[in-house]
Amino acid sequence: MTLKSLLKTGAAAMLLAPAAHAQEMADTVTFVSWGGAYQASQINAYTDPYQAANPDVTIVWDESSPEAVARMRAMFEANNVTWDLVDVVAADAIRLCDEGLAMEVDHDEILAPAPDGTPASEDFGDLIVSDCFIPQIVYSTTNGYRTDVAAWEGRTPDSVCALFDTENFPGTRTLERRPINNLEWALLCDGVAQEDIYDVLETEEGIDRAFAMLDRIKEDTLWWTSAAEAIQFMADGEAVMGSSYNGRLFSAIVEQDQPIEMLWDAQVFDLDGWVIPEGLPEDRLNRVLDFLYFGTDTQRLADQAAYISYGPARNSSAPLVGTHAELGVEMAPHMPTNPANSERVIVFNYLWWADYRDDLDARFQAWLAQ
Amino acid sequence: MSDATAGNLSQAAAEARRDDAAQTGPMLAADGRPLKQSLNRALRAQKLRALALIAPLLIFLLVTFVAPILDMLFRSVENQIVSETLPRTVIALEDWDAEDLPSEDIYAALAYDLHAAVERRIHTRLGSRLNYEETGLSSIFRRSGRGIDDVGEGYADQFIDLDPAWEEPATWIGLMADPDWIAEQAAWAATETEAREPVFQLAPGIADLLPETADAYRSFALALQAEARNPDSPTTEEPWNTVFLALYRDLSAGAEVGAVEGPEFARAEVVRLQEAAAAVASFTPVDLRATFADIDEGWAEMPIWTTIQTFSDPYTAGYFLAAVDLQLTPSGIEVVEENQRIYMLLFQRTMVLSLTIMGLCVILGYPIAYLLSNLPLRTSNMLLILVLLPFWTSLLVRTSAWKVLLQQEGVINDLLVWIGLVADDARLAMINNQVGTVVAMTHILLPFMILPLYSVMKTIPPSYMRAAKSLGATNWTAFRRVYFPQSVPGIGAGCILVFILSIGYYITPEIVGGRTGIFISNRIAFHISDSLNWGLAAALGSILLALVLVLYWLYDRIVGIDNVKLG
């Protein structure tokens, strides 16, 4: 898609925007995102075209998404909310909504319908996991492994259970320092059927089972807190396999040409999207709504996939996904949503984890520390 | 003669003074005020001036140091959210024996509270708060937010079947609202101003007649008016189903509506109320507990109730207990299960590792400081820069550099393998564990030990050592009995600095500590930014602060704080 046609569709979308948005709008807004390649993809796909159509708008970026929930709570306590649109993962969106810090929205009212007229709420479908959440992308936490491990004697892992198989796949692993995903994988590899995982995890024996499984690799694992660490461990050869976000793995494999391969089995789907802070002044809210109508439409979400290997959250965007903006590789095979990659998928169970997170986290951290 | 004169003179002076005191009272200053007063005034002005001079710093300290600490201490016990969100339920639960599920009265109180909380969108906050104590409560509250409209629906239908007028907002206004408010509201509606609707007022006497209904209707009306973006008016909205529930409960409890004499315009409403009162006996009762169980089974189980009751006080020791691996349960304080105990372990580890780091800093720093203070100035300045250079380098850079050096595929391991000291498949694990934390933090904190040591050693005259040796002491005795005692204040200062800095350290253990090398501050950071359990984070922080103060006090008792010198 050329810039010109991009602008055209952008302008068309602007004209279609409901008249309600044509009110007094603030010219400077603050968006919050994750920095790095992800934020760059948002700038390229969403805000650059928006600013081209609205030259007098200034967008200030704040790279605070990792601590967005705590920061927003602090802002609300100080009664001084300086953010206008915040990019968070779905679990955080649910918490912000629970805490009353994020605004509830009517998706059909504020977001553009699909080109064929399907209302936004249907186009996003199940991905609207909270009334405050406007999804952008589907990403996944999945595993990668080094392709040059001599001790494996040519064997390559084809299932997530290779993580727990230290006999066939010796070497250090790297996993996230939190219970989410790790407990699911542990149970899955202990023979629990995928649909029973959360039922089993609700019982004391089930939790013991999961931890017994993790005990096998406790001493062989480096526990990461930021996904970049995991990639670093694998690139340095400190770890031979481990979990990270699929976009990070993609950039290590395709952009940096590291001897790492994807292991898509039992990838965990997660979502990332926008929330609007509660109680914005009228003019800032209008600007944000105006941007959102444009920035989350079908074409914009599809465009983002040209810069990063995360799947667009709209059903209608999937057919429009093209090639990588710089490398020219087809992006579709690298999407977590690609059928070949998603034979076995765990969908992050937000509501379950919202309940059990505090408890299991205490248990997990105690397990780690002992 | 001169003696006599002097004696006479002093006698005369003393007499004069006595006379003076007897006649004129206090001594006077030049302006006629008593001297004492005048002196006090001058001193006060001086004090004020001094205070004004330090005021900027004092205010700065109060605002940026004392206030946050007090705020943190307060958060660690504050628990008003429960009694603010569920005020009626908390009161109703006071007398509950926690043996059987609560009575219908308590469920009714919950219905009123929850409906008001849902409208204000604060019920999920309470859910998150209580979920820290009991797993699963967060989703019970979230689901209840969606289901709360079902509570009392049965009664609303029956009232409306009896007389469709119950559906009309005007019926309720006539019954519940203060006539003065109705007039005010009408005037407000006529003017179409930007101002908000006058705040709803209950009719006088209605709260005595229909206590629950009046209470429920009032919270309904106020919730509508308080909506931030699109405030509604009770004059145009049908009341919540919980208001019908309240009306049913009042009427079936035998409210004496026969005696009501409403104002002229509300005559019809009063008649309607009397009709309803006659009819409620024939209404089909709705089981509130079953209604709540339909919304979420959790409401028909004990844990949620005992948790609300246990944490209903506006102040709680719960966070402090959790911070030392205890928990508050309905049956008292208990130790948490062994597989969840973590904080005592981390406090202990933080202490032990910090002491280790402090000790290593003394051992490494002392010879360096000695060398620096005894070399000629030019060379020692050069060396001092080498000490300070890492001090000026970013913490993250230094920590990451240790990572490159110490990791298994890192420089040191490569070197050891190349020399042949270590086999290639048995590389040493020197990072992502306690060793990593100790090495990296000793390096980072070393300047804090060297600098006070250096400045103290600088002041020890070299002649003392020479004197000791010339009196026959060996090098070792001279050092032990002359030099070392004089350098102790520097060691004290360095130790306090290093130890206090290290127990609060967080970034370095996070990066190089791995599984076994993290500190208590990492958990505090987790609770601040990840789990949002700020109460627990505050309690952990307070305990850490108390520990530092205790150690400081101990140090003062044993070594004496006057013995600390920074230079």
Structural notes for this entry:
The complex is a heterodimer of chains A (370) and B (567). Chain A has 2 domains: 200 residues, 3-Layer(aba) Sandwich (D-Maltodextrin-Binding Protein, domain 2), CATH 3.40.190; 163 residues, D-Maltodextrin-Binding Protein, domain 2 (3-Layer(aba) Sandwich). Chain A is 39% helix and 17% strand. In chain A, β1, α2 and β2 form a beta-alpha-beta unit. In chain A, α2 packs antiparallel against α13. The radius of gyration of chain A is 21 Å and the shape is globular. The N terminus of chain A is likely disordered. Chain B is mainly alpha-helical and 567 residues long. Chain B folds into 4 domains: 50 residues, no CATH class; 91 residues, no CATH class; 130 residues, no CATH class; 221 residues, MetI-like (MetI-like fold, Orthogonal Bundle). In chain B, strands 1-2 form a two-stranded antiparallel ribbon. In chain B, α2 packs across α27, α12 runs antiparallel to α13 and α19 packs antiparallel against α22. Chain B is extended and about 115 Å long. The chains are: A alpha/beta (370), B mainly alpha (567). Chains A and B meet through α3, α4, β6 and α14 of A and α6, α7, α18 and α26 of B.
* Poorly predicted runs of chain A: 1-21
Structural domain tally of chain A: 2
Mean pLDDT of chain A: 90
Q: Percent helix among the residues of chain A?
A: 25-40%
Q: With helices defined by DSSP (H or I, 4 residues minimum), what is the helix count of chain A?
A: 14
Q: What are the secondary-structure elements of chain B, in order, as H or E?
A: HHHHHHHHHHHHHHHHHEEHHHHHHHHHH
Q: Please indicate the percent range of residues of chain B in DSSP E strands (runs of 2 or more).
A: under 5%
State the assembly state of the protein chains: heterodimer
Overall CATH architecture of the largest domain in chain B = Orthogonal Bundle
What is the CATH T-level topology of the largest domain in chain A? Answer: D-Maltodextrin-Binding Protein, domain 2
Secondary structure tally: strands of chain A: 10
Give the full name of the CATH homologous superfamily of the largest domain in chain B.
MetI-like
Q: How many strand elements of chain B?
A: 2
Give the chain pair forming the largest contact, with residue counts: A-B, 38 and 40 residues
Rg on CA atoms of chain B, Å:
38 Å
For the record, what CATH class of the largest domain in chain A applies?
A: Alpha Beta
Mind describing the biggest β-sheet of chain A?
10 strands, mixed
Sheet with most strands of chain B: 2 strands, antiparallel
CATH class of the largest domain in chain B: Mainly Alpha
